[in-house]
Amino acid sequence: AGGITSTIDTILDKDEFSLGELLADEELLQECKAMNSRLITYLASADVIGQLFTYVLEEPEPDAPHDRCYTFPYISSEVLSCDVNQISEAIFAPESTDHFRRLLGYAQAPAPLNPVLAGYYA
User: What is the value of pTM for the model shown?
Assistant: First the structure.
């Protein structure tokens, strides 16, 4: 049965793509909730989990594009907190321990915290 190919699948079909391309795609969260297995497998990899934490926890450069300042941290926080077992298991996997420590230590960072990022942290 030939269904409609999502833009997420089109990105995943490319030989090379960036996490940013996926985070900028408005179908990403819907595809996560629809349990797109290729997407979930990609997002649950240790490297990608680390990048998602970085978007949520690290202050972007002052001249960073809008996506890096707002879209990527927001979508990353949504992916990290979505109710998908494979992603949750990846967050708590031994290879993600350092990322999880960064998350727990974020609230203890010196003031002032970036209000946008702090909102995603909560």
Answer: 0.83
Cα 8 from chain centroid (whole Å)? 14
- Terminal Cα-to-Cα distance of the chain (whole angstroms): 42
The burial of 14, by beta-carbon neighbours within 10 Å (0-12 exposed, 13-18 middle, 19 or more buried), is given as exposed
Q: What is the DSSP string of 4-52?
A: PPPHHHHHHHSSS--HHHHHH-TTHHHHHHTT-HHHHHHHTSHHHHHHH
* Token pair 């990527």 in the structure block, residue: 72
- For 69-117, the pLDDT digits (tens) are 999 999 999 999 998 999 999 988 888 778 777 777 766 777 676 666 7
Q: How buried is residue 24: exposed, middle or buried, by Cβ count under 10 Å (0-12/13-18/19+)?
A: middle
d(CA 32, CA 34): 5
Burial track 97-116 (b if 16+ CB lie within 10 A, e otherwise) = eebeebbeebeeeeeeebee
Which amino acid, residue 106? Y
- The Cα–Cα gap between 86 and 15 comes to 24
